[in-house]
Design goal:
about 325 residues, alpha/beta, Rossmann fold, Dehydroquinate synthase-like, alpha domain, 2 domains, six-stranded parallel β-sheet, about 50% helix, globular, binds zinc ion
Amino acid sequence: MFYDFIKIPAVVKTGNHILGEIDDLLCSSHLYFPKKILITQENLYNLYKDSLDGNDFFMKIFVQGGNVSEAPEIIEKCKETDAILIAFGGGSVIDIVKYCANKIDKPYVCIPSTLSNDAVYSSVARLTCNGKKTSFGVQPPVGIIVDFDVIKKSPKILILAGVADLTSNLSALQDWLLSHRDTGEPINEIAFMLSKESVMPLFSYGEKDLLSDPFLFDLTNGLITSGLSMIVCGSTRVTSGAEHLISHAIDEYFPEKSTIHGLQVGWAHRILERRYRKGPYSEQVCDFFYRIGLDAAFKDKIPWNDGRDFDMLIPYARKIRNRYTVLNLID
Ligand SMILES: [Zn+2]
């Protein structure tokens, strides 16, 4: 009787051209719901109308995503219907659906239109609330369906951001070990192992592989395994360290200079490995970022320099939350 119980999705399905098979995929996983409500962005719906219309939706709700202000209207439309919510879109759509589903205690399925971060399977929704990015604790999805054909049509920069967000687990884990050493914070070794192993398969790929099925399979499953590590851990400690604090500091204190989450996280991670850690993965991570095209993406999208700008962000990052990281050791 002395076990931990965790919620894992009833269906995880990856493949090409599966967006039109949502009904069958749910049924074959014994997820029988009388009604399904699709929540997505109108432009995405129009882009994939032919495939999406192969499924039977009771209602379609179009959203912008990303802002908690949309929630009351979505909740009002969904709360009286015995339905499962289907979130189709990027992180901003998935996060607003997570938030609403949690408020009205409805199950939901995530169908990402890109893989730009770990939103696809996590128990945290990041939404703008009163002008500020805020994290909300939510229930994880009952299903995850990833159509590679859809992902391949998303901007390459977003896939790179997802790669960087996942790779940053290795930074978070070093911070966790550091805190264990310095403050006695306990380590959950199952969560630790899941987080670490979710990253490792990526290192065998280069930029030419970004849109290949094997790479997208490893990236998808890496993001799912990483999400599982958070659920096992019961916190984001296992996937979010100093590099996330830097990214959150940019979003919070310099929103006019903020950009895609995964790129900010990856940029900060690379600097931490180069300047502040001589960790077991420093060389591997920096080589991989160069090989996969992330160095070029940072150069293109990050408006901060690696030296003085980064150091200027450190005091802001320390204010984000009380989490012991390598930033605590920097004067
Ligand atoms: Zn992240």
